[in-house]
Amino acid sequence: xxxxxxxxxxxxxxxxxxxxxxxxxxxxxxxxxxxxxxxxxxxxxxxxxxxxxxxxxxxxxxxxxxxxxxxxxxxxxxxxxxxxxxxxxxxxxxxxxxxxxxxxxxxxxxxxxxxxxxxxxxxxxxxxxxxxxxxxxxxxxxxxxxxxxxxxxxxxxxxxxxxxxxxxxxxxxxxxxxxxxxxxxxxxxxxxxxxxxxxxxxxxxxxxxxxxxxxxxxxxxxxxxxxxxxxxxxxxxxxxxxxx
Length: 244
What we know:
Layout: H1 4-24, H2 33-44, H3 47-81, H4 83-98, H5 101-112, H6 116-140, H7 144-152, H8 157-195, H9 199-209, H10 213-237, H11 239-243
């Protein structure tokens, strides 16, 4: 990883701020790093945490994110080629962007009930506009000179998609995917808190209720580590885009 020293400096700065805040405030507000580390170890060695808390959250986030990507990309590519489709979908996109996430989760809870489908639906619907805009704008940003050249030389549709359209759309989709990774987990946990169907969201809610702040901070550390690992994996898969 390039500029590893700056990343380490940023982590160290966050740690110093955290440590200073723990000296200023009560343990119930900001626990000390050592207390959080102890709670983190207890979670990591607990098999039930992996199977009953973390895994359901990750599966819900992955399912909702995958649905959002499929629907958003398909509609975005369609809208990028059709002014009419873009006009039809745009008002709905504005509604979803303006609608607060807790409000939609509550509505989904009323429509679907307290079950996994409510959480997955909330994540999919609220993330779909991110992929829609990325796919649409990426397609619209395709170099028209390349498409004209492809027509002149009668390039096949498959080669046109592979060498012209896909790279152009990918430039927009990679940052959108990076953003969606974090938001999928955040929306999943928010929905789990409101729906109370298990997972990290419900565990975080219980930790807050019983003032188990070190455990709450430990779960936040785990989430940060997961998001960082997934982003690093994305950087490995698409090194040239990540470097840009």
